[in-house]
C-alpha cells in the first residue's frame, strides 16, 4: 500500500464538506481512503496564508515544546517548510505523522510527500507497521497485509 494521493488543506476541507452534504461524516472512511494524505494548515501554517485569509490556525507561532501536541521533530525539522500532515493507513485509520505519540515524542519524518519515511513504527487501532519511502509495510502483528479494518457504522 502506497501513498497515492496528496491533498492541500483546502482540498481536504472541500472533500469533507462534500461528504457532509451527502449525509456522511466529515472524515468518513468511505471518502478518505487508504493511501490518501493531506496537509493540515489549520494546526500550523509556515506561510501564514491561512491566518492572513482569516481562517482559524491553532498555532500562529512556535510554542514551547511542553505546550504543543505537535512533535519536537516537527518543530525542529519541518515547521519552517510545511504544515503538519495526516495520512490514511492501510486499514483506513487516520494518522497525524507530526503529532507526539502516546508513548513518546512522535515520529522522525524524512522526505517529501508522497515519498515520506517515518520512524519508529506506526501503531493505530488494528494496524502496526512502518511507512518507508511512501509505502506502508504489511501489519507486523500478523493481522494481514492491511491489518484489521474497522467497520463503518
> Could you name the ranges where pLDDT drops below 50 across 5 or more consecutive residues?
none
Question: How much of the polypeptide forms β-strand, as a percent range?
Answer: 15-25%
H/E element string? Answer: EHEHHEEEEEE
Principal-axes geometry comes out as globular
Structural class based on helices, strands and sheet pairing = alpha+beta
Largest sheet: 4 strands, mixed
* Helix share, percent: 10-25%
How big is the Rg? 15 Å
Output the strand order for the largest sheet: 1-2-3-4
Strand count:
8
Distance between the termini: 24 Å
Explain what the structure shows:
By secondary structure, the chain is of the alpha+beta class. The protein is 15% helix and 22% strand. The model has no long low-confidence stretch (mean pLDDT 94). It has a four-stranded mixed sheet. Strands 5-6-7-8 form a four-stranded antiparallel sheet.
How would you sum up this structure in a few lines?
With 153 residues, this protein is of the alpha+beta class.
Amino acid at each position: 500500500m502506497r501513498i497515492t494521493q496528496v491533498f492541500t488543506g483546502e482540498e481536504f476541507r472541500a472533500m469533507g464538506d462534500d461528504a457532509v452534504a451527502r449525509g456522511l461524516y466529515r472524515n468518513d472512511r468511505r471518502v478518505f481512503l487508504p493511501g490518501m494524505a493531506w496537509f493540515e494548515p489549520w494546526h500550523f501554517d509556515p506561510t501564514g496564508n491561512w491566518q492572513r485569509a482569516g481562517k482559524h490556525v491553532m498555532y500562529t507561532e512556535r510554542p514551547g515544546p511542553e505546550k504543543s501536541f505537535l512533535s519536537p521533530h516537527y518543530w525542529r525539522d519541518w515547521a519552517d517548510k510545511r504544515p503538519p500532515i495526516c495520512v490514511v493507513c492501510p486499514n483506513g485509520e487516520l494518522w497525524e505523522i507530526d503529532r507526539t505519540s502516546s508513548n513518546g515524542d512522535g515520529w522522525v519524518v524524512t522526505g517529501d510527500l508522497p515519498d515520506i519515511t517515518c520512524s519508529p513504527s506506526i501503531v493505530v487501532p488494528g494496524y502496526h507497521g512502518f511507512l518507508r519511502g511512501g509505502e506502508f509495510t504489511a501489519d507486523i502483528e500478523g493481522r494481514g497485509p492491511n491489518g484489521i479494518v474497522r467497520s463503518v457504522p
